[in-house]
Amino acid sequence: MLVGTILPELLKLGLDKSEAKKIFAHIRQLPTDLPSDQCWRHISKKVLDKNHPIKVHRYLHHYVYKDWDTDKSPVPVWTPEGNDIRNSNIYGLMQEKNISSYDDLYNWSITNKPAFWRKMIDLLNIQFKKPYSKILDLTDSVTSPDWLSSAQLNIVDSCFHAAADVQAITFQSEGGQISSISYRNLELLVNRIANSLIKKNIEKGDYVGIDMPMTLESVAIYLACIKVGAVAVTIADSFAVEEIKVRLQIADVSLVLTQDYLLRAGKRLPLYARVTEAFSGSVIVICTDDTDIDLRNQDLVWETFLSENDQFESVICSPTDYCTILFSSGTTGTPKAIPWTHTTAIKAASDAYLHHDIKKGECLCWPTNLGWMMGPWLVFASLINQSSMALYYGTPTTNEFSQFVSQAEVNMLGLVPSLVSHWRATNCIQQHDWSKIKVLSSTGECSNPEDMFYLMAMADYKPIIEYCGGTEIGGGYITGSIVQPAVPACFSTPALGSELVILDTDHKPVDNGEVFLLPPAIGLSTELLNQDHHQVYYSHIPLYQNRICRRHGDQMERLPGNYFRAHGRFDDSMNLSGIKVSSNQIESVINQLNFVKESAAVAAAPKDGGPSKLIIYAVTHDGCQLKPTEIQSSMQKSIRRNLNPLFKINDLRLIEFLPRTASNKIMRRQLRQNYV
Question: What are phi and psi of 668, to 5 degrees?
Fold first, then answer.
């Protein structure tokens, strides 16, 4: 119950007297027996706005929910109303299947997986050149399921069944004007590129590298590669030369498409030069300005490469044919080359349809690139659902990006949590109208609850769908929905059609432990290009209730009310700025410095939640005279130059020796646990 102590507290929090009285008067009129969730919904929608100090929002939220029983569930910040539920895609599916609750829907999706995925294929209008004879065949094993048996398709065909004049992509360069392209014109561009690839002797099954930012051209190139039956090998545009080189070599790439420079915060960063240093084969380069480029004999500029022929019939593929190779670092230092097949896109589009509630004609924005799984995810999530994607060519930390979100009329905005931390620190999103947003989503790192509360306040208290999965899943295994209350930095449900268990080190069920997935599910990888898939995901894992468990490596905690909170990685890989990287990769760069004897890289999660921080433990050679600040600076420069400029060392600890196991392995987990 709200009482008169509110007014003086509002004054203490910095509100002027007239505004504080206005808020107090409005709240005092609310019924005293109004449930907390209804009371907060009214206050968040009718009383507060984003111009009020965030501490005022926080205070009122705490006050409204002061008697909430946290033993039953964490405190929500958004609760769906009747219309939210009735207008959702999930509710439509429940009505069709005569299912009365979300829990029952989830249970149906995992106990009747063939029926569930058959329904999703129908809802998404997946196009087949030859229909499947069986939705799922487990003859070989649940670890090697045969989805869509005997079918023939090309998943790109399912990306172009929207009306021709519907907007497919909205895009803007830093400092440029907002533009858009229709589905019809995008398809014609894809066809021109497809014909160009054929002229370069690219055939079905060939590997084609793409090292570009997320642009109209890179999306079209990506789709064209798949349309000709080739395999798109996508590489993050931030990678250094050696990282590019190893990925192109693993995939045995025939051709690479890139652009001359990256534009970041007004700076032109060379990209073509990096690619050509890493790759001796033919490169197609898009020139972003009129600056002359020193082109190698075997390379072509975009205009010379691009065919005028805008008609192309997609190449027939099987569901198991590769369409994309993405890379995810494990604990060995060697990146895993993870194939996506023509069925993986179904998982991405299904998650968007169900959990992000994407509808025909809506606009999705997720700052990303094709080298991170969320890039291909965005392509399929938007196009298969007959919606559009909004692409901003530049850093998403500026006022201009915030304005772009407004002007593009974005309906679903995705992000990595560290981005929210920056927005909060700079307050760059407050001045722009984000009222068109109906849902937010966060992935790539552990979210900070305070940051997520701030984001919801800036977006008129729209729900945040936490989304956790992996490249080898094609989407999420745990997430949220708009038919369930949203708790900042928490998940409210396993993804529909997906199953998980949380086990301790003895593989016993616990509320806080390591996540294991229970196959089968569309999207789950069955092969790796350069490693033994079974060894990586299934070896030495006991059965759980007579079912095969699949290793994933996340640490997850089950909270009251069947909510979940992520606590990072169980193994030695880490998520930094939304990019997976192994400890070994970072250590190998640092250990090249002449004053470093050995090192250990760990990711430490802040006690109050949020993205993991990179911590370096190092042993220096005897006689090293450098100051700790100088050592850290040298390490940072080496990481920036040889690995990725996005990886920032947050702390350096100089120690006499690294703790090791009896088999001489560094005990990184101990270092992580002991870090204060």
Answer: -65, -35
In 53-174 the beta strands, taken as DSSP E runs, fall at: 134-137, 146-149, 167-173
The length of the chain is 676
Query: Is residue 221 within 8 Å of 212, Cβ to Cβ?
Result: yes
CA neighbor of 10 nearest in space, from 66, 58, 75: 58
DSSP secondary structure letter of residue 61: H
Does domain 572-674 sit in CATH 3.40.190.10? no
**Closest by Cα among 237, 230, 317, 309 to 269:** 237
Give ranges for CATH 3.30.300.30 in the chain. Answer: 572-674
Chain segment 21-60, per-residue pLDDT in tens = 999 999 989 998 899 999 999 999 999 999 999 999 999 9
Q: Is the dihedral of CA 7, 13, 18, 19 positive or negative?
A: negative
Tens digits of residue pLDDT in 635-674: 999 999 988 888 999 999 999 888 875 445 677 878 888 8
CB 324 within 8 A of CB 234: yes
Q: Greatest CA separation found in the chain? A: 78
Residue 646 and residue 236 in contact, taking contact as beta carbons nearer than 8 Å = no
Three-state SS for 27?
A: helix
The C-alpha atoms of residue 126 and residue 148 are separated, in whole angstroms, by 11
CATH number of 156-555: 3.40.50.12780
Exposed / middle / buried, residue 209 (Cβ in 10 Å: 0-12, 13-18, 19+): buried
Q: Is the pTM higher than 0.85?
A: yes
